[in-house]
Amino acid sequence: MSTIKTERRKLDLSLLWKVFGTAFFVYLFFGFMLLPCLNTLTQIFKANPEDPLAVIKFFFVGNMPSFVWNSLKLALALVVTVNVVGVSIVLLTEYFEIKGAKILRLGYMTTLIYSGVALVTGYLFLYDSDGIVTKWMASAFPEFNKNWFSGFYAVWFTMTFACTSNHALFLRNAIRNIDYNTVEAARNMGAGPFKVLLKVVFPTLIPTMFSLTVMTFITGLCAMSAPTLLGYDSINPEIVRLAGSAVTDEAFPQARAALLSVILALFTIVLLTVLSSYERKGHYLSVSKTKAKLVKQKINNPVMNVLAHIYAYVLWIIYMTPVVMIVLFAFQNYEAIKKKVLSFDAFTFVNFFGTQDYNYTNGRKSLIREDAISGVFSNDRTIAGIRTSFVLSALAAALACVIVVIAVNYIFKNKKKLSSTVLEYSLLFPWLLPTILICYSYRTFFNSNEIWYVFNQNLYYKDNVRLLIIIAYAVVKLPFALRMIKAAFYAIDEELEDAARNLGASGWMTFVKVKLPIILPSVLAVFALNFNALFTEYDMGATFQSSNGTTYAMVIQSMTHDEGIGGWNINATGRRNASTVFIMLVSGLILYLVYGVGARDLSERLEARDRRRRWLQKITSRLRPRKPQPEPHMRS
Amino acid sequence: MIELKNIVVKFGDFEALHNINVEVREGEFFTFLGPSGCGKTTTLRTITGFIEPVEGLVYVNNVDITHVPIEKRNIGIVFQSYALFPTMTVYDNIAFGLKVKKLKKSEIDARVRAIAAKVDLSDEQLQKAVSQLSGGQQQRVAIARALVTGPAIICMDEPLSNLDAKLRVQLRNELKKMQKDFGITTIYVTHDQEEALTLSDRIAVFNKGYIEQIGTPNEIYNHSATEFVCNFIGDINWIEPQLAQTMGLAEGKNHFIRLERLRVNQPQREQEIILDGTVESREYYGLYIKYYINVGSQVLKVIEKNDGVNIYEAGQAVKVGLGLADVMSYDAAAQAE
What we know:
The complex is a heterodimer.
Chain A: H1 2-46, H2 54-61, H3 64-95, H4 101-108, H5 116-127, H6 132-140, H7 151-162, H8 165-176, H9 180-188, H10 193-221, H11 225-230, H12 235-243, H13 253-280, H14 302-330, H15 334-339, E1 355-361, E2 366-374, H16 380-413, H17 418-428, H18 435-445, H19 464-490, H20 494-502, H21 507-535, H22 539-544, H23 552-558, H24 572-597, H25 602-623
Antiparallel strand pairs in A: 1-2
Helix pairs in contact in A: 1-13, 1-18, 3-4, 3-7, 3-8, 3-10, 3-14, 5-14, 5-23, 5-24, 8-10, 9-10, 10-13, 12-13, 13-18, 14-24, 16-17, 16-19, 16-21, 16-23, 18-19, 19-21, 20-21, 21-24
Chain B: E1 2-11, E2 14-24, E3 29-33, H1 40-48, E4 55-60, E5 63-64, E6 75-78, H2 90-100, H3 105-118, H4 123-126, H5 135-147, E7 153-157, H6 165-182, E8 185-190, H7 193-199, E9 202-207, E10 210-215, H8 217-222, H9 227-232, E11 236-239, H10 241-247, E12 253-258, E13 263-264, E14 272-284, E15 288-294, E16 299-305, E17 317-323, E18 328-331, H11 332-336
Parallel strand pairs in B: 3-8, 3-9, 6-7, 7-8
Antiparallel strand pairs in B: 1-2, 1-4, 4-5, 9-10, 11-12, 12-18, 13-17, 14-15, 14-17, 15-16
Helix pairs in contact in B: 2-3, 2-5, 3-5
């Protein structure tokens, strides 16, 4: 009897879980993905009640096509240069024998630890009208245009080097996975190193290259921080501008922002459809049973070899100069940064901690503003930005992980059911939408007291916006989390679950004790990577543009504004550099934790524990007072 | 002990098991043998509860367990991959089932250490990660984990298939010894005939979801019930019709003779036919030598013990003896079906 009761209780619980789970995912999909975006779509046709097509007509007569064209131009240009630079850095460090490859690789990979606004401000530090390189050029050529670093070419140049992170990760993996025996076979049949590269190596890289090309195109199309900071009229900055504009200033600003968002979404959907249909065709897989590790190829032609080395180090200088300069100037005082001259005497930590007085003259007399020069961690506005970004990013990254882990567990348990397919596609849905569209849709849709399913609360009002940002962050990161965590679930041997059940574990216990510990490193990695990306993300924060949700990246962006002589925005460049150093440290630490510590399996962790224990024993045995030795007996 | 009655298992429209009937005795080492996809693992999973049959009943000690949940069947399993939890130490792996049963910590410890000692795992090994152990040690952990909860039956699904040949033979012997020591009823799944013959008390040979024969290794090998069993177990010579006619064997049947039953250059015995042949080639195995001998109408494979003296060269004329009593005959029509 009691067994029947227990079974019934179990059944009730599982039914409850199913109902709750279904309700939650339906709520998430319709409430925070579909309805807000549909609302954006309808805005286009509702702007003028007399003519539903008014906004579209306005689009063609106004200057809006130029924003679309500018974005397309940037995307196309980036596809060429990012691929050229991306392929170059991978070949130079992984395929060809180039001296100092390890150092070169470190330089090329700096974009992994600083990107977005932080990276663009780094480039600005060198190349803007007051930048180091511009100053050098101006002193060498007095006629040199100090405002040279702006507009299309500046954005193109900056993004070319900023967007090679994916190449550095994925193309590197692809090239390292090449079976060296195929290279040897081609060499054996008389092919030279470049012929082998062209005919044997490149064809195996094509699928990865194709994916990277599509991703680069989308990145170019959706570019935000570089065009905003470097002044280039592309789609995203225009959406943000229009979203904040009033009807009294210009015609249909919100509806035009919506139209631009939808255009961006259409481009993204088409490109991702092309990409996924291509991916479905399959990849070139090595058929070797025993794969040989790739051996670096020596460039035999001495001229080519020298040219390759020169090219490698020129690229390295381009990558490294902003990083080195930012790090060095992060520890220089206000005057040194102003003059862009490094000096040991100017060494200071004030850009990080503490404050200093600011002396200035207003033309008539010398004035002092007390504590006007402040460091990152002593400046209220910067601290607030860091705190906001930290909390919002951590909560959103955790939320995305929890949602995805629960969903993927269900998907794997119900592989052949329609419900699991629907769930998977609904979580991938945000991938089709540009982040700007999602954020813009949230901003307009939830800026109302009439949305019943959020209890008629205006989520864009005051502090509520933080909740809205968390949801937006989480929703945007769902597809990435799904792909990564799903891959981790694939690594779980199905027999493990059977074994746990056979040993008497319930479904919940099997999940907590067996499956979760296996996928935990991947889940933590996804959490860390998402946190890392969100902590310094600019695009979404800028789209929400709320004083109650000012993120760290927005604060950094504001540091690029001119410094006023009255003390306004004083030491912004110093804090900007210190912020970049701080971001690099945080990102570096996260990458180390994810790929260094997190990737260790149990045996490696146990070995590390043993090492620690032995080391402790050694220390304690040295510290322990020695027992007095008995005096030796004298021999007679 | 275990009884499967008229078991039918379907995956969608595909019928994987057709009316399976097996009875396993207490303490017996019983093997399900057959090629891939024949239904042996499906039968095992039906016993362990991972698969529910659409028809038929599963009994253990005369109790119907057909619809009893997996965790309540009291059947231990050693999986093909061992399914050791990679995030747990050896100790935690073995203790898992006991922790699920919420036993006292001291009892768990005592039982884990006792079973570890029985399967020859040291205290030091208990604290290691499973990935730090060799294949053989991992197998012992899997067995210890399956046995520690005190199951009435243990099921093993190709537990030696992931190991190299030498280790497989070594562990096969250890496995047999452990089974005898524990005296536990064991169901063993394999596609390896040699493994089945050396380990088992009895064997069920599966083919396409049916059981072709149940019997002792000797019955299966020397008195194969069907042509499939005869062909599946070990290497065999098919006696082609012309030679069968020469030997006076019945028409309309397929005739087979095992390689080791043929004799080379030996005096003729009763009920034996001697054929003139020429050695075409030979394969040297050390312990024995395999000859391919052309007897005119066909090439026969023959295994001769390597005595170091009577070794025949290719092209050498020899006499091959075929005992009529050693011929296994099956209806040709039955095979065609």
